[in-house]
Amino acid sequence: MKVRSFALVVFTLFSFSSLALFDTNEKEALLESEKNTISIFKENVNSVVHISNIRKVRRGGGGGLFFFERGRTELVEGEGTGFVWDKQGHIVTNYHVIRGGSQFFVRFPKDRTKYEAKLIGSESSKDIAILKLVEKPKKLNPVKVGSSAGLQVGQKALAIGNPFGLNSTITEGIVSALGRNIKGVAGVEIYGMIQTDSSINPGNSGGPLLNSSGKVIGVNTMIYSNSGSSAGVGFSVPIDTVKKIVPQIIKDGEVKRAGFGIRPIEKEELEYYYGLDVKKGLPIGFVFAGGPADKAGLKGMTQDNKSVYLGDVIIGIDDKSVDSFDDIFNILFEYSIGDTVTLKYIRDKKEKTARIKLEELKPRKR
Length: 366
Hints:
With 366 residues, the chain is of the alpha+beta class. The chain has three domains: 45-133, Beta Barrel (Thrombin, subunit H); 156-252, Beta Barrel (Thrombin, subunit H), CATH 2.40.10; 258-360, Pdz3 Domain (Roll). It has helices at 2-29, 32-44, 95-98, 239-252, 267-274, 292-295, 325-333; strands spanning 48-59, 71-84, 90-93, 103-107, 115-123, 128-133, 156-161, 169-183, 189-196, 208-210, 216-223, 234-238, 258-259, 262-264, 282-287, 302-303, 308-309, 313-317, 320-321, 340-347, 350-357, 359-360. It has a six-stranded antiparallel barrel. The radius of gyration is 28 Å and the shape is elongated.
């Protein structure tokens, strides 16, 4: 009997030690790349939030039998992801995540509280928006902001978000291409986007794209897919673009853009409406009086009783070529109000240049 008891004790101890050894071996068996992914997730998951976009709509047409049929109800306009930018409670997300909403709620991982947030401002042309928490949790964990300037095709890229409402999901892949120009929600191409094969699905929009150091290199924005689900091609707005936008929105509620004081017209419109054929460049439709372009002597289109005449055609800004509205919009986005640029243009089939000091772009009347 004593022999049996001793054997049972030995077997039990051996079993526990084997399990402990197995667990230790499993941990040791993790590859360095796996450990890196686990570390990045743990460091960033509490910085990534779920955003609900609520739209208040009027219900009832007033034709019912009871007065209480009239009123307003709340509909979920959309859901997406965002991430904590700073200790003040600013949240970065996509413009299309908050578009059309009148009220916004933010949820953090493992926190059942719905925190209300207000919209600070947005830049629809880059699909970026900033919310600010009305009430903050006890602890906020801002992300570490990296740089997109030195990215290389093939380097590791990770996305954290809430695809299909599945909170705190991480996917891993690589930067599969750089410098993509993709049409955004505002109808203007977003230049220089990061292409990744990290799985990005509906609900991931507005979440961070991270490098192997756990720093944000982009904001996940859209996918290319016939089914609406990830097909291995996703796009992110570069963080260097975001870093230019966010401080301006926090300060002024908007991005103040620099411009020439012109109204351009696309070549296709020129040919369709006026029968004028322009092979390259961006034609100037109208020059606003007193603006930088006017002071530099640039000319827009003119007409008389017989015909419409072509004005100056912009072909470049400094060392960058211009061939469309998207070109000039994205090029000027990189400049600040007060910067001086060299404008290259064609007049009467001759190439000319002009030095122009940029001014704030504002809606203006002719």
